[in-house]
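Thought: the user wants the 3D structure for the chain below. I'll pass the sequence to the structure tool as-is, report back what it returns, then summarize two notable features.
Action: structure_tool
Action Input:
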Amino acid sequence: MNSKERLYRCMAGEATDRVPVVPIFMAWAAEYAGYTYGRFQQDHIALTDSLLRVQERFAIDQLTTLSDPHRETADYGAEVFFVDDGVCRCREPLLKDYDDIRKLRRIPIEDAPRMTDRVRAVERFHAERGGDISILGWVEGPLAEYCTLRTLEAAMTDLLTEPQCFHDVCAITMDNAIAWSRAQIAAGADMIGVGDAASSLVSLDMFREHILPWHQKLYAGIHGAGAKVRLHICGNIAHLLPAIRETGADVVDIDWMVDLRRARDVLGPETTLFGHFDPAAVLKMGTPEDVARHAREDIAAGGDVRFGLMPGCEVPPGTPEANIAAFCPGEGCLIRDALAAAWHGHLAREIPFPQGKGLG
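Observation:
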């Protein structure tokens, strides 16, 4: 069973040989492969080379194209600057007031160089590993993209005082997000990640009224092109879970501060959950044994089916390699028995687990 088969059998609620392991790597992967994080964000060769090396070492079950939250923002015309060892930044917000919405337009992928670079990453992953492993494309969610165009503070104020500004912007950005998602799907992505971290800061009522409809539109466009959706809202989204169930996401990432059993109860048995231990206090600062213990607890809490193991958010730079190996199925794994436990409640039956690097 290869990684893609494993992941999709898991998502279908079918038995697999082991739990899929699906962490998000960005800055850590760049450092591991010998690139600066600045180059990783700008060059699809550096990004794909980094993730392919990580996959070979740790045998993870999905290749990701995440790098930073400003790809779309740069393609709308914002001035973005890069540093070697951090996330790129906008020098100033593109949308300083309502009249600046006129700067936004529908942008063909050929006129969007940073999003085109992401499409090239998908193409290279597909050329190297297409058919063997899931390839995750990526777009920013409605509120996340609005925040990068306006600033977080202005976005939160707008939702309270001028929500129509948010909706007018989303009418353009979500059409582009659908088009750019479809370009990635055509290049070989079988799943599109949607990052919308800022949504963890709003109330359930505000999310339902203003943000949920745009998620639903975006996901309908992605599903219509034949791909699945993985929703990533890092932070405490416990209060949003009832509305997140309405988005139509196939996979929901659950961060460490959300009770995993409650997330399962609210999102229901048909939603695949990825999660969930603390990427800082446990993964980066703990011992391999700490990581293994929390990973086992997550597997037990995630349910018999439709669960993938990962820390709640990105693997932080500076995390010891042994800590990552502790929960991943490659060399150095400390939880092989838990990963390989049979699904559907038959936890006593162990499935043979091959040794060595590059287990796919």
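Final Answer: Structure generated. Residues 3-22+101-108+130-339 form a domain with the TIM Barrel fold (CATH 3.20.20.210). Residues 69 and 126 are 23 Å apart (CA to CA).
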